[in-house]
Design brief:
3 domains; globular; 26% helix; OB fold (Dihydrolipoamide Acetyltransferase, E2P); four-stranded antiparallel beta sheet; alpha+beta
Length: 437
């Protein structure tokens, strides 16, 4: 019996996804709940399990294609038949997956990166019926953001998605054709375009021996997010050196007992989380977002933790950090990091952060100046904890020190508040109470 495999909805605000990799080939057997293919949305990358046991009979959506949710991407023969498995029809490989071999001369006309992204994101629609007149325009947050950045009036765009929904394909087509375009805000530069601009003529990029590797969907989203953040927020940086000796000694002393009692690994991150919660409580302007001329002060403290992956970077969120004890914070961090690396995160777990922390120190970085994770107004960078000679009471001592760097949006936060916040975090770390563990 054939079982259709569909593009799942990975969250209420997710209406399409990109197939990034098939983990099985036509003719191969797959067990129920075994990872079958990988997808990427504008929120997360995820492995999608098989809905049934059987043989993968057909792949209908190739790697690199973006389709609306509920689109049939493949078919499984749940009877497990291995005969007469049709070969997939030949299709043009999306430009986003093409990678020229090593060459000596530049290609005559390499497609711009933004074009490659557009080709990969423009599959045939499920329906071609124009949207009926509607009071409420049906579209995803991604579509509305693209429309806003490019000055497109969504009421003038015909939606070809389910129920007349305006898809990413529709908005990209409208942007390219100029349909429905209204006056763009003064000085506005589309984030998607600016993210992939080159600083020099393209003929100066392709020379000698080279290989072209198209950016993954996640890498493209990171690029757009970072360029948008640097363009919108005037970044200012403050640095504080903190004595971590007490924390290091307590962790070494309590590590074995803590891990035996709690059955979870003890890292340095919950120490920094607890200290940041104290700082954010004392200085609520740091736990905020900007909406035009309004400062949105969040009552919940939701801290995003940057997790480095082999294929990019993602920021899962510890929500309600102010309500969790030390053990709860450690378990939340370990759980989110593990599921981020195994592509098991849900879209809502990377949303609604109010403050962020990134830790380049785990890779030996002495310090870093991170880019603000929008819509936050600040992000804390944690450097490597290293033993250094310092002067204490006119005597030289060897202490475990760390540099804390704070990047903040100068529209919302002044240097005085930023340094007071850092001083609060520093005090909490240097005067850590053993009873908190």
């Amino acid at each position: 019996m054939p079982v259709e495999v569909v593009m799942p909805q990975m969250g209420e605000s997710i209406f399409e996804g990109t197939v990034t990799k098939w983990l099985k080939k036509p003719g191969q057997r797959v067990e129920r709940d075994e990872p079958l293919f990988e997808i990427s949305t504008d929120k997360v990358d995820a492995e999608i399990p098989s809905p049934a046991s059987g043989v993968l009979k057909e792949i209908r959506v190739q790697e690199g294609q973006t389709v609306p949710i509920q689109t049939v991407v493949g078919v499984i023969d749940s009877d497990g038949a291995t005969a007469s498995v049709p070969a997939p029809a030949e299709q043009e490989t999306p430009a986003v997956k093409q990678a020229p071999a090593v060459a000596q001369a530049p290609p005559k006309a390499p497609a711009p990166p933004e074009k490659r992204a557009e080709v990969a994101a423009a599959p045939p629609p499920l329906t071609a019926a124009p949207a009926a007149p509607r009071e409420k325009i049906r579209s995803s947050p991604l579509v509305r953001r693209l429309a806003r950045e490019h000055g497109v009036d969504l009421s003038q765009v015909v939606g070809t998605g389910l129920g007349g929904r305006i898809s990413k394909k529709d908005i990209l087509a409208a942007i390219e054709s100029g349909a429905g375009r209204g006056p763009a805000p003064a000085g506005a530069v589309p984030a998607a375009a600016s993210a992939f601009q080159t600083a020099v003529p393209r003929e100066r990029i392709y020379f000698g021996r080279y290989q072209v590797q198209p950016l993954s969907v996640m890498r493209q989203r990171i690029a757009e997010h970072m360029v948008l953040s640097k363009r919108v927020s005037p970044h200012v940086y403050s640095i504080e050196e903190t004595d971590m000796t007490r924390v290091v000694e307590l962790r070494e002393k309590m590590k074995a007992e803590f891990e035996a009692r709690a059955a979870t690994k003890l890292t340095f991150m919950p120490f920094f989380l607890c200290a940041c919660v104290e700082g954010l409580r004392a200085f609520p302007a740091m736990n905020a977002s900007l909406d035009g001329t309004n400062l949105v002060l969040h009552h919940d403290i939701n801290i995003g933790i940057a997790v480095a992956l082999d294929w990019g970077l993602i920021v899962p969120v510890v929500k309600g950090a102010e309500e969790k004890n030390f053990l709860g914070l450690q378990r939340a961090v370990n759980d989110l990091a593990e599921r981020a690396r195994t592509k098991k995160l849900k879209p809502e777990e990377v949303q609604e952060s109010t403050f962020s922390i990134t830790n380049p120190g785990v890779f030996g970085g002495l310090m870093g100046l991170p880019v603000i994770n929008q819509p936050n107004v600040a992000i804390l960078g944690v450097g490597a904890i290293q033993k250094r000679p310092v002067v204490i009471n006119d005597a030289i001592a060897i202490r475990s020190m760390v540099y804390l760097t704070l990047s903040y949006d100068h529209r919302a936060v002044d240097g005085a508040v930023a340094h007071q916040f850092l001083a609060k975090v520093k005090h909490a770390l240097e005067n850590w109470s053993e009873s908190i563990l």
